Amino acid sequence: MPATLLATHRVEKPWGRHTLWPGFADPAPGGEPVGEVWFQQPGDTSPDLLIKYLFTSEKLSVQVHPNDEQAQARGLPRGKDECWVILAAEPDSTIALGTLEPMTQDALRAASIDGSIEHLLDWKPVKAGDFFYSGSNTIHAIGAGITLIEVQQNSETTYRLYDYGRPRELHLEDGVAVSDPVPYQAYPSPGEVEAGREVLVEGPKFVMERWSGGGDRSVTVPGGETGWLVPIRGHGSVDGVAWKAGECVSIEGTGELTASADADLLFAYPGTQRA
Question: Which of 47, 126, 167, 259 would staple 236 via disulfide (CB 3.0–4.6 Å)?
């Protein structure tokens, strides 16, 4: 089947929320806060990319992910590059990306142990509509009061360097070993290539475009790969499968997409140099 509406998997997190986002049911009163909603392929599969929504009420841990080579040296299939499209943010919301100044590994380890790492990161203000690409080896932390869509390499290998005193496991030595503690350099977005189509990422691990406007469009996934259609706003169908905001559709091959006039969509597929 060329188009499949994906199932959702809700993930409880201590930094999650009880009020989510239109299209997602809030947790039951007294239930654990939900921090993530994953979109899952049918069957026992491990696709190249994973699509998530994140809902934060507190800061996420200061963390880092390995690259493909580092992950494969540990017997893992791939590293983790990721990117975020901000859907909503409170006025003082921030995301940390990189360090304010270059640091040695010894200084990074010491700052992670004593907690000063939190104040040595570059906390950037965020607002709805912002886009950030966080490559593997980038030290980062997502702040409170944010709703976002995350598109990432399908890996959950996360090394926590600091967690604000929460009683969760840290991975100090592994995290320091794969960290590149330097100031963040924004990913050079290729920009709009035609009216209503903006290329946000054209990287070796995945490609992601943002489409706006309605009507019909031909959707083509290169070379027998799987692509992911993530509607932010609007509704429509692709190859007879109906979709609406808050859902995700996987696509194989070529399909015909129809979108409502105010549609806002992400379309992602694997890059050519992935693991």
Answer: 259
Burial grade of 224 (CB within 10 A; 0-12, 13-18, 19 or more): exposed
Phi (first) and psi of residue 148, to 5 degrees: -150, 160
Write down the catalytic residue from 160, 210, 217, 274.
Answer: 160
Q: Establish whether 168 is a catalytic residue.
A: no
Q: What number of helices (H) and strands (E) belong to the chain?
A: 3, 22
Q: Which residues contact 85 (CB under 8 A, 6 or more apart)?
A: 130, 131, 148, 149, 151, 200, 210, 232, 266
Q: What is the pLDDT of residues 219-260, one digit of tens each?
A: 888 777 899 999 999 999 999 999 999 999 999 988 899 999
Which amino acid is it at 149? I
Q: What is the pTM of this model?
A: 0.95
- For strand 254-259 and strand 235-238, is the pairing parallel, antiparallel, or unpaired? antiparallel
In Å, the largest CA–CA distance within the chain is: 56
Among candidate residues 20, 46, 52, 49, the one with its CA nearest the CA of residue 33: 20
Give the pairing type, strands 34-40 and 7-17: antiparallel
